[in-house]
Amino acid sequence: MNTHGNSFYAFRWIIMLCLFLGIWTFACDRNSSPSQPESQPQKPDPPQATPLDTPSGNLIHASGCKETTGVASKVDVPRNMDCMQWSYDSAGILYMTHVNTGFNCCPDSVFAQITISDTSIWIQEGERDGLCDCLCLFDLEYLFEDISPSEYTIRIEGLYRMDEDSPLEHTINLADSTEGQFCVQRDYYPWSVY
Questions:
Q1: For residues 125 and 109, is the Cβ–Cβ distance under 8 A?
Q2: End-to-end alpha-carbon separation of the chain, Å?
């Protein structure tokens, strides 16, 4: 009888058994927590604050030409002032009015392209098919949802602002102030009539 062959065969089985037990032990350790005995249940994670959804914004109302419709602003602002007025609530709703923005007297429609980031809200206003040979002032109302109470730079680019004139841009901190107004004086047509 060959004892050398039998011991090699037994040694090979012992090595395979050790490998199997090592792998099995390692796999079992990955599923259990070494800091807590198996008899204690796992503590649930504390509840997390529900994050706001992705911020969004829409133009919800345009007044029409205030000179031809007779519509007055909801706020008392001189006609040579281009203003933004805002209010914010704890549900993440930011309501904003652009008071005295210039458009063609009779556009087919007005629109706004809105870009929102963590620190800014940019609005590019526009019109389609301005059919009249005149300009006038409108009020545009915006609704923004899921806005966190932090600091934002709001910039509104109107159509008829002169290149050398300042845009309507202001930084607001919604954690500190839930409402406010910012204005830029415009001393040219359509804000001022000569």
A1: no
A2: 122
User: What predicted TM-score, i.e. pTM, was given to this entire model?
Assistant: 0.71
SS3 76: coil
193 part of a folded domain? no
49 part of a folded domain? no
What does the alpha-carbon distance between residue 108 and residue 85 come to, in Å, rounded to a whole number? Answer: 26
Write the pLDDT tens digit of every residue in 19-29: 555 555 555 55
Find the length of the chain: 194
Q: With 70 as the cut, is the pLDDT of residue 61 above it?
A: yes
Interstrand relation of 81-88 and 179-185 (parallel, antiparallel or unpaired):
antiparallel
Q: Give the β-pairing of 168-173 and 151-157.
A: antiparallel
Alpha-carbon 140 to chain mean position: 20
pLDDT of residue 53: 80
* Residue 84 and residue 124 in one domain: yes
Provide the residue range defining the domain that includes 6: 1-30
Are 2 and 81 in the same domain? no
- For the ranges 1-5, 30-34, 179-183, the lowest mean pLDDT is seen at 30-34
Tell me the C-alpha to C-alpha distance, in Å, between residue 32 and each of 25, 101, 167: 11, 64, 61
> DSSP code of 25?
H
Say which DSSP state 178 is in: S
